[in-house]
Amino acid sequence: MGQDQTKQQIEKGLHLYQSNQTEKALRVWMRVLEKSADPAGRFRVLGCLITAHAEMGRYKDMLKFAVVQIDTARELEDPDFLTESYLNLARSNEKLCEFQKTISYCKTCLNMQGTTASLQLNGQVSLSMGNAFLGLSIFQKALECFEKALRYAHNNDDKMLECRVCCSLGNFYTQIKDYEKALFFPCKAAELVNDYGKGWSLKYRAMSQYHMAVAYRKLGRLADAMDCCEESMKIALQHGDRPLQALCLLCFADIHRSRRDVQTAFPRYDSSMSIMTEIGNRLGLIQVLLGVTKCWMIQKELDKALESIEKAQELAEGLGNKLGLLKLHCLCERIYRMKEQQQELRDHVVKFHECVEEMELYCGMCGESIGEKNNQLQALPCSHFFHLKCLQPSGPRGCPNCRRLSVKPGYV
């Protein structure tokens, strides 16, 4: 298969894929991969296969094609192709929750000296790195990466990237419980879809609606949360987007739990867990198990709640997800208080505070914890964040966290 024929077949596959004929598109692209003698064409078709498998939640296949793409990029001896292939490798590992590997491959991308074309990928690299740091609960570095990605998006007038970053920032602020910002950023993403997204994939609309649903639920606006989640789920079902279906099912379950309708919540959690397990989203599984634990607690089934916590703890420790561990210690504290088991209660209180210290989840101004309840937060240019109310009276006097880190003992 020559260069022109390769190009035609790739376009044919893209047309099929955009018409929701995914399996036909995959067969066309696999034939190109088997028969094409054009390395640049093979590189491009591998990119199509990586994107398609990512959207279907087939993350192990995504990783397999990313590894082949790196070999093809080396054969082409082109730094731009190599940067793009390492970015795909980083994204594959991000989806599989291999966050340390993601960060390592992202750093490789940023260290490559490519042309202007590969420099334009730096925003996407920063976004992927930010998502990985967030998975590890390293909040300052995550925010730093997201803000860097946002600057790249603005400088390159890349509205799609801006939309994706806004959704990640929504997730970021959801996790540290500034629900006003958690809603603001996906609403901004939805505005971008409305203003610029006529030619975009519907996944951008679905993604923004899902993150809005999560924020609305946290704010107690359950009817709004349900409306947004239903719209997101409808698109996810139309496009066979298994990862988003799993997240929507989790959100539906959380909404029903917020209404204390655990009998409706449990089957939604089970369905979400099934897809999360199938695609390998271990971070999502932790969230499902947290929700299931809270349902058992509502029903006063404390031993069953502890069983769910044990499974979630194993996953959180394996991933290095410190925020997940903090939430589990918090739930254990409540359970052992209800069971009146004082020693276990004290153990989890100590572990909870160790997690807070390790993640620096406290305000450097007032010393109170961050992420315990809904609070307006403000980040300084160094990406350390504080209670907004604590920063306003004192004004900008530099970052107390940075000052404290600069005078740590141990340097001679």
TrEMBL record:
Zinc found in the keyword field: yes
Keywords: Cell membrane, Cytoplasm, Cytoskeleton, Lipoprotein, Membrane, Metal-binding, Myristate, Phosphoprotein, Postsynaptic cell membrane, Repeat, Synapse, TPR repeat, Zinc, Zinc-finger
GO MF term (any one): protein-membrane adaptor activity
CDD domains: RING-H2_Rapsyn
Subcellular location: Cytoplasm, Cytoskeleton; Postsynaptic cell membrane
Stretches assigned to the RING-type domain: 363-403
One Gene Ontology biological process: positive regulation of neuromuscular synaptic transmission
UniProt key word Ribosomal protein: no
Residue ranges of TPR repeats: 123-156
GO cellular component, as recorded: cytoplasm; cytoskeleton; neuromuscular junction; postsynaptic membrane
Chief location of this protein within or outside the cell: cytoplasm
Membrane topology classification: Peripheral membrane protein
InterPro entries hit by this protein: Postsynaptic, Postsynaptic_CS, RAPsyn, Rapsyn_myristoylation/link_N, TPR-like_helical_dom_sf, TPR_rpt, Znf_RING, Znf_RING/FYVE/PHD
Record family assignment: Belongs to the RAPsyn family.
Function text: Postsynaptic protein required for clustering of nicotinic acetylcholine receptors (nAChRs) at the neuromuscular junction. It may link the receptor to the underlying postsynaptic cytoskeleton, possibly by direct association with actin or spectrin.
Protein known as: 43 kDa receptor-associated protein of the synapse
